[in-house]
């Protein structure tokens, strides 16, 4: 049942993104930003963690989870370091994911040749 909920919740998040692009005529970049902000807002109201507990990967894989990570890291570090922790916490929590995306993207670019 966990897999079904993950599929449905992840699909719902993707459906929302597709509707934003189709109905409101937003570009993919604008849609991406909207979904990140939606994840951040849900995290700010402490609604995203219960969604992760319920849907698992269906809530952690979509881009909304990035917004959740930003807010979660900022709030965690703000408790320890005050206002400076807000900025450093966002970078601390998300840096490993961003760094690995850059490294693996570079490796992929070196290994594979584009078809032209």
From TrEMBL:
Family matches, as InterPro entries: Spore_V_AE, SpoVA
Keyword tags: Membrane, Transmembrane, Transmembrane helix
Domain of life per record: Bacteria
Annotated TM spans: 6-24, 83-112
The keyword Coiled coil is assigned to this record: no
Name assigned to this protein: Stage V sporulation protein AE
Phylogenetic placement of the source organism: Bacteria, Bacillati, Bacillota, Bacilli, Bacillales
